[in-house]
Write a structure and sequence with these properties.
This protein is about 10% helix and about 40% strand. By secondary structure, the chain is mainly β. It has a single domain, classed as Gamma-glutamyl cyclotransferase-like (Hypothetical upf0131 protein ytfp, Roll). It comes from Marinobacter albus. Pfam families: GGACT (PF06094).
């Protein structure tokens, strides 16, 4: 396991895309106050904006899982401006982790004030 990733939506335990993390090591939860969460319909999106905290699950993952997550999140390292999500490092209680940040406007979406999706 070479990377940490912090997830807040469909990748969380019991959610629709959690199977992508079946070989990952669950390290625990955290609340990231540097993020604000928005309801995008079938999934949430977090943007870098202060809040009371977005609840994340932190996992240790390998290169293959990270590549699979990039595909799921429509993250294109060679063309970030075209990506639906950007991958940014953020501090967690478990260490510096990759977090997928929504790369579109959120003004028309409902803010999830609880920080839990």
């Amino acid at each position: 396991m070479k990377h940490l990733v912090a997830v807040y939506g469909t990748l969380k335990r019991g959610c629709s895309n959690s199977g992508l993390l079946r070989e990952a090591t669950f390290l625990g939860e955290d609340a990231l106050t540097g993020l604000t969460l928005y309801d995008l319909g079938p999934y949430p999106g977090a943007v870098i904006r202060p809040s009371d905290g977005v609840v994340v699950e932190v996992y240790a993952i390998n290169d293959r899982i990270l590549a699979d997550l990039d595909v799921l999140e429509d993250y294109f390292p060679a063309a970030p401006e075209e990506s639906l999500y950007l991958r940014k490092r953020m501090a967690t209680h478990h260490g510096s982790a990759w977090v997928y940040i929504y790369n579109r406007p959120v003004a028309s979406h409902r803010r999830i004030t609880s920080g839990v999706w």
